[in-house]
Design goal:
By secondary structure, the chain is an all-alpha fold. Helices cover 52% and strands 0% of the residues. It is extended, with a radius of gyration of 29 Å. The chain binds zinc ion (ZN). Zinc ion is lined by residues 71, 73-74, 76, 87, 89-90, 92.
Length: 295
């Protein structure tokens, strides 16, 4: 048996060693890193990240909110209330307060970029969103319905569920991106509405052209009239509901100078999808009852 074999036996373990055990210094515990919640208003360093503001500070818990600041849970205005106390409307606590005055924050970032706006920029961005959103919706709805695609398996399922989900989401996709990442590009609520409703109008027109001139070889006057009135109104109407939710998200961000919360769009998006799906279900019934009208 060689010496190297002995090193791996139990006689080599520390408890059999007559000398005091010396731990490897590289395995020493390191001191814990300072965590964001250990920052106080005095040690706050600006420019860390505007997306991760350390506004949960131990010294601020009773500091009153000096400006409009909506409750994260119910939207009530917390102005005048001390931070971290239960909301007067819903009773839940708000941990996020406005950043301390005079520091680099999302607020200063947003104010700086909003101040640089060239005249007409918001309208140009809104029209671009309308164009892109309309094309997005057409392309994604075509991709989803192509033969062999997962959504083309069951026609009523496609019309009632997948179609409305894809179309309503994609119509507001470009506008949602701007609201979430570049909210300062819009200067008025009407521009947010235009960017989404314009996409719906664009989608409705492109879809009608496809249906009336590509899918249907010789459409009846009734079908033409139906598509250019009812279908256009449905697309614009459903998206107007989603757009008003998106405008609310934008308005909260611009009014309170805090990051837009795109998840607040969910209730209005779901409403738009549900109405669109219900309409499609009703049309399936009408087509079955009056087949000659829809040719
Ligand atoms: Zn509340």
């Amino acid at each position: 048996m060689s010496d190297s074999d002995h090193q791996h036996g139990i006689e080599g373990e520390p408890q059999h060693n007559p000398h005091a055990f010396k731990p490897d210094p590289s395995e020493q515990k390191v001191p814990p890193p300072s965590r964001p919640h250990e920052y106080s208003e005095k040690t706050y360093r600006s420019g860390q990240s505007v997306y991760d503001e350390p506004d949960i500070l131990p010294g601020r818990s009773r500091e009153p909110v000096h400006r409009d600041w909506s409750c994260t849970h119910c939207g009530a205005n917390l102005r005048g209330m001390p931070l971290e106390t239960p909301c007067r409307e819903c009773g839940r606590r708000n941990w996020y307060g406005p950043p301390p005055a005079g520091v680099d924050s999302y607020e200063s970032w947003l104010k700086r970029l909003a101040g640089d706006a060239a005249p007409g920029r918001g309208t140009v961005v809104a029209l671009a969103c309308a164009l892109i959103g309309g094309l997005f919706a057409v392309v994604s709805s075509l991709m989803g319905t192509s033969p062999g695609g997962i959504m083309s398996v069951n026609m009523p399922m496609l019309a009632i569920v997948f179609g409305p989900v894809v179309e309503e989401t994609m119509k507001v996709a470009a506008a949602s991106y701007v609201v979430e990442e570049r909210p300062y590009l819009f200067t008025r609520r009407s521009q947010v509405m235009l960017s989404a409703v314009g996409a719906a109008l664009m989608f409705a027109v492109l879809e009608n052209l496809l249906y009336l001139f590509v899918y249907s070889k010789n459409p009846s006057t009734n079908l033409m009239l139906w598509r250019w009135t009812v279908c256009v109104a449905l697309h614009v109407g459903c998206t107007a509901i989603v757009a008003s939710g998106l405008a609310d998200v934008w308005q909260r961000a611009m009014h309170e100078y805090r990051r837009p919360r795109i998840s607040d769009l969910f209730p209005s998006l779901l409403t738009g999808i549900a109405i669109h799906g219900a309409y499609n279900a009703a049309v399936i019934g009408l087509e079955w009852k009056y087949p000659s009208f829809f040719r």
